[in-house]
Amino acid sequence: MYGIVNKAIEDLITTNFGKHKWNAIHKRSGIEEDFFISNEAYDDDVTFKLAQAVSDEMNMTLQNVLITFGEWWVIKTTKEKYGGLMEAGGSTLKEFLINLPLFHNRVMLIYPKLTPPEFKVTDIQENSLHLHYISKREGLQDFVRGLLQGLGKMFNTPVTISLLQSRNEGAAYEIYNISW
Questions:
Q1: Contacts (Cβ under 8 Å, ≥6 apart) of 160
Q2: Average pLDDT for residues 98-127, to the nearest whole number?
Q3: For 38-159, where are the E strands, in sequence order?
């Protein structure tokens, strides 16, 4: 993952709990990097070690850490750093989700080494749709749930998210039912 992801984890912790808590988490993670360069690619293991260290240090489940981070990613990181890109995705939650399959094409112009997930949208209804999340990376379905919750907040649209299928249960990829 790119350094911006790891920097966002650091920002989430320092903003809400202070630099001392980040230092404890960084030490607990065992990673060697003292700082992250936003547009530099890092091994995914660095991000997972940070997430696990947050879980351990904050006495939270890893699931809750990933959901919280997903919301933070949308509400703070992408909105502040890539506001124009986010606005180009649509003016409503439904529009944004329908346009999501094209979103990472634009992101790849900024981060050419990105290995993005693939999204497909099916079963589009007036107040719901199915979002197919296909990724080479495992263990991020809770992060995606947090992203979806963050998008709901960004668009001031309460969302209900149900996981219809998961790799944890033998499926090839995740499918979420999102309703608003």
A1: 178, 179, 180
A2: 86
A3: 118-122, 128-134
* Alpha-carbon separation of residue 54 from 25, 66, 79, 83, 92 (angstroms): 6, 10, 23, 27, 32
Distance CA 173, CA 136 (A): 9
pLDDT at 114 over 80: no
Token pair for residue 54? 């947050």
Residue 11: both structure tokens together: 């920002």
Structural contact between residues 26 and 49, judged by C-beta atoms closer than 8 angstroms: no
- Looking at per-residue pLDDT, the higher value among 135 and 107 belongs to 135
> CA 24, CA 119: separation in Å to the nearest integer?
36
Residue 41 CA to residue 82 CA, distance in Å, equals 18
**Nearest C-alpha neighbor of 88 from the set 70, 112, 110:** 110
Q: Has residue 107 got a pLDDT over 80? A: no
How crowded is residue 175: how many other Cβ atoms within 10 Å of its Cβ?
19
Greatest alpha-carbon pair distance for the chain in Å reads 49
pTM given for the model: 0.90
